[in-house]
Amino acid sequence: MQNPLAGNQFRTRADVQRAVGALFSPLLPHFSASAARVRLSAAAAHFDQAAAELEGFARPLWGIAPLVAGGGDFEHWARYREGLSNGTDPDHSDYWGDISDIDQRQVELAAIGFSLRIAKGQLWDPLDAAAKRRIAAYLISGREHEFVDSNWKFFRVLIDLGLAHCGVEVDPRKREAYLDGLEGFAIGNGWYRDGPIRSADHYIPFAFHYYGLIYAALSGDKERAARYRERAGEFARSIRHWYAPDGSALPFGRSLTYRFAHAGFWGALAFASVEALPWGQIKGYYLRNLRWWARQPMFDRDGVLSIGYAYPNLMISEGYNSAGSPYWAMKAFLPLALPGDHPFWACAEEGPETFESPVALPEPGMVAQHLPGHVVALASGQEYARWRGTPEKYGKFAYSTRYGFSLEGNDRHFPSAACDGMLGLSEDGLHLRMRESSEAALIAGDRIYARWRPYEDVIVQTWLVPTGRWHVRLHEVTTPRRLEVVEGGFAVPKPDFGAWSEAVSAGRAEVATAQDVSVIVGYDARAAQVISPLSNTNVMAARTLLPQLRGVVEAGTTLLACAVLAEPRSDGDVPPAPECPDVDELRRFFRAEGRVVSVFDMKAQG
């Protein structure tokens, strides 16, 4: 496997500049003869192949345009001008296709609009008049159609920024309507929900805030710019709790294949001159994340970014992921548009703040534990129903920057179910049910509660309690019939040659490798075991080991409880498991202190 980022230390602006060219070069052999399309794979997304190949063409511009805007070199502008001219030509065989409402082409035109705004001299000015008219007409066609009622509304805004900079006038009323509509997605403390669904995930930093900060920096709209900057500042002080000291970010929700697009938020703060934290800290979050990604085996054999997360893995993909989709990661390079003497580049990189106690994050429905070697987010209150694996991506009890989470490779084989970070249930010993959504979710101090139904007639009430380096889960299961249950701790990478140890006793399972240890301790009658889940199901490691508890619940109401810990191996011993909290005391605490997790309060948020 070729890693174009191998050896890049990501310490300086020059290092980041070099990464743009290194990531782009493997794409060159895949440009069509017309230069309008980048053909990376026959694997399909839900949109047509012409749109997928436009995606491969357009998404690298998120990094290329800032590179040249900041004085960096890029040798292939002629290719992009030729491709832009041919792709917008209805008479050319590589025409990108007519645009309709809610069309993937609109997404990719945002990258072109942005590039015209900051790299007009390279992409637009050398074109002849006929090509300019054709390109403008295509962009106008895209912005005139309707967009998804979500962060997509920013795409019309970005297209318009490019058109206006090139002297092309459009009716501003549709843009203004979308900018007004975007306000309805804000849910407080800088967080947004992405559309009508209850999700506050990876899209928030590299979509809502990223586009909003670009608009703040480039539009001249002072009122909205002030609002976007203020929200981004609030959000920075919250989203920093998704980052571990090694730079890894929390894998949570959909669209993980965009990878280091997440770093784009920290770069966008700089682009819009928002010193939400000291510049040295902002720079630290940015560069550490890029360094972490540079170490991951996320490329195909020729150095092209793969679909996946820490490694190539179609299992985690959504139906809108084409082979060109991962190049939204190029959004990370936005601060290259800034000069080298900007405070973001001129300051010394600083480490993150330390947090000894758990931190409640009500808007995404999380409690963050800053633990040795990783961050764990205890979670309740989110869902996203449409794409594959969304119960695992949104509904688990715990997510880790080091151990990620697993998707179920076979929901019709309960004995092999991983259920890391989750309670799984089965009425026939074959099919698997888990939390897909919650009827209620509350946060009280640093504790979370949820009520959910794996079956229509089965109610589970779950309390999540951070306790030192552990967290405790309590589940009250009320069922009219007998059910089999399984609950997993954290899945750790599985080494070759049996280089691990297992310690299984009554109610306790521990697995240890040279690098990691993972433990689950039960406070009930379930049996403990260690399993090796199906390969390619975990977002961080292709093969894993997982401690579990398995048992049954009879008809009636049963209380299940366990404590979970995973961390890098150290010279010290694993601390003893905490005492199990009293569930009646938890009920009283939530009655007194609990409040609705914000993503549930849809009516109040408009």
Concise account of the structure shown:
The chain is of the alpha+beta class. The protein has helices at 13-24, 49-58, 61-69, 77-87, 104-118, 120-123, 129-144, 153-165, 172-182, 203-218, 222-239, 264-271, 279-294, 343-346, 390-394, 583-593, 602-605; strands at residues 186-188, 191-192, 359-361, 366-371, 374-379, 398-400, 423-426, 440-444, 447-455, 458-467, 470-479, 483-488, 492-493, 500-505, 508-513, 516-522, 527-531, 544-553, 556-568, 595-596. Helix 2 (49-58) runs parallel beside helix 5 (104-118), helix 5 (104-118) packs parallel to helix 8 and helix 7 (129-144) packs antiparallel against helix 8 (153-165).
Using brief descriptors, characterize the structure shown.
606 residues; alpha+beta; Glycosyltransferase; Beta-galactosidase, Chain A, domain 5; 2 domains; 9-stranded antiparallel sheet; 5-stranded antiparallel sheet; 17 helices; elongated
